[in-house]
What we know:
There is one protein chain. The chain is mostly beta strands. It has one domain (39-257): Jelly Rolls (Sandwich), CATH 2.60.120.200. 3% of the residues lie in helices and 44% in strands. It has 2 helices and 18 strands. Strands 1, 4, 7, 9, 10, 11, 12 and 16 form an 8-stranded antiparallel β-sheet that branches. The two termini are 35 Å apart.
Amino acid sequence: MAGGRTARQTGGVRRLALVSPLLFWPLLLALPACNPRLNLGSGILWSAQHETGDLSEWTAGGKGGTEADLPNTALAISTDYAHSGRYSVKLTNGAVATYEEAHLWREDDYPVEAYYSAWFYLPRAYQTTADWSIVEFQVPTMDAGQIGQLLDIDLRSLPEGDLILSVYDHRSAYLRSPTPDPALPVPIGQWFQVEALYRNAGDDSGEIAIWMDGQLNYELHRPFGASSTVYWTIGSKTEGLSPAESTIYVDDAAVSLVRVTPAGTL
């Protein structure tokens, strides 16, 4: 359901001469998850592991923030569950009749091609009656202080009850992307990673590719590039879930030059 969506205001290895380390990234990323975890080092442009016990990684450098529509939504550092370390971010949403949201965001002139990833945890299953946006890519508008909606990664219920990832592009030429066949069910009661390659180009080389737990879920080619500034939002935006009071946890978020993958460490 697209109605009700509104704009938001505002390492021990012999070095080889003349061989770039970047040549080894494809080999590293091809390793299966059972291999030792991969330290991505300088490939990380920004990350939030939340082990500061606060939300300062999101607001660092004045390039991000947090916001919740009170009183029906909230966000806070939590020790209930964590993907790594001790802390994560807990997002709750009890909106019934209109879209409300709790979210964190980063904004920057990121490279044209970058990867955006985060880990999510749903403690129980929910039934959606409207889109449940957990990742959003947004762009500036002509109106000062206004951020326009571009593309969302949503949770959506199938008739048999499974939750899946769904993609909604707010531009009229695209809108809802077809559900993959077979659809990949979102895990309940365990951490899952959503990672997106976003190629922010204004021609047909523009691309959004989305992996869940390392498995390609969507690969869409279309122009983007309306602005060099990328607004990347992680949150819980929805209405009318069953049960109405929803909780989702977020941890180990990153913007990177290479895929983090489920085997990566920040």
